[in-house]
Write a structure and sequence with these properties.
The chain is mostly helical and 167 residues long. The protein contains six helices and no strands. The longest helix is centred in the middle third of the chain and has 23 residues. It starts with a helix and ends with a helix.
Length: 167
């Protein structure tokens, strides 16, 4: 899949420019954050291009959790804001995984026995649940100051909790 390689290559080029701009001390920090956002955008775009099914859910969930954690602990508002659309994408991907499962075959045939806990859908949902529980916990923690105002923080708190509870 050359399209996935192209998007990752584009992200790598932006990463090199962001690193070069970071080494120059008189470059505005906003430019470095913009280049970092472009890197994250191209990496996010490359996921559905290169992968399919439950892998997309796992990668987007991990990316959302990591970005939220970095944004909250390092006080980088761009990363925290970028994690919110990724949470939505991960949720849509998870719900899509639930509704696109192939129909069950003959349950008594030995070669088609499915394991209720050792399948991609369950593992994806469990990982999603763990990541969203961690995000919910980091959001409610008083250890790090949020980059959001209290009203939006409360809304995110309930939305992430509801999404995890629904999963």
């Amino acid at each position: 899949r050359l399209v996935g390689l192209f998007t990752i290559s584009n992200a790598a080029i932006h990463l090199l420019f962001a690193d070069g701009a970071d080494r120059l001390k008189h470059v505005p920090l906003d430019l470095i954050y913009l280049l970092s956002a472009l890197v994250l955008t191209f990496v996010t775009i490359s996921v559905p291009v290169q992968f399919d099914g439950n892998q997309i859910t796992l990668i987007w969930t991990a990316e959302a959790g990591i970005l939220f954690w970095i944004g909250r602990t390092r006080q980088i508002s761009l990363y925290e804001f970028y994690s919110f659309p990724l949470m939505v994408l991960a949720s849509v991907s998870l719900y899509g995984d639930w509704f696109t499962q192939p129909p069950a075959r003959d349950p008594f045939e030995v070669s088609t026995i499915s394991f209720p806990f050792l399948n991609g859908t369950f593992v994806g949902a469990a990982f999603y649940l763990a990541a969203f529980a961690a995000i919910w916990n980091w959001n409610r923690s008083e250890r790090f100051d949020p980059v959001l105002n209290p009203e939006i923080r409360t809304l995110i708190h309930y939305a992430v909790g509801a999404a995890a509870l629904f999963a």
